[in-house]
Design brief:
about 0% strand
Length: about 140
């Protein structure tokens, strides 16, 4: 792996995009549709889709890590109490389901899975070797 400014720029862009998704997910995760945590589901799907897309499009674990760090930093920053005392992620009542806790656990877990995913699966590599070239 050699150093290049375009690679660093890609990491910065991935971090910023991850932060935007993190802010949106942190704000939206508390939305409940009756008993169903619709905001949490949509936020999780969005972040996982972002991380998978970044990993597949760039083929780089470091870029996926930058996007994941952006999501995690935004979640950390916006999960606390603001300077005026406002809280974006409220504490649930005792014994009630708390989507905020699930959100803070699922984001790093999703990032870890996407980043740790192998470069290629053995089955895929075998099929690529067996298929004849169309040239």
């Amino acid at each position: 792996m050699s150093f290049s400014w375009s690679r660093v720029g890609t990491w910065v862009v991935a971090f910023v995009v991850g932060a935007v998704y993190g802010v949106a997910g942190t704000v939206a995760q508390a939305f409940m549709l009756g008993w169903f945590p619709l905001g949490l589901v949509l936020a999780t799907v969005g972040v996982v889709a972002l991380l998978v897309a970044v990993r597949l499009l760039t083929g780089d674990r470091w870029t996926a890590l930058a996007a994941g760090m952006g999501v995690m930093v935004a979640t950390l920053v916006f999960s606390g109490a603001g300077p005026g005392g406002s809280v974006v992620v409220p504490q649930a009542a005792e014994g009630a389901f708390n989507p905020g806790i699930v959100w803070t656990v699922i984001v790093p877990l999703a990032a870890t899975i996407v980043i740790a995913w192998p470069e290629s699966l053995p089955r895929m590599a075998t099929r690529a070797q067996e298929s004849p070239d169309a040239d």
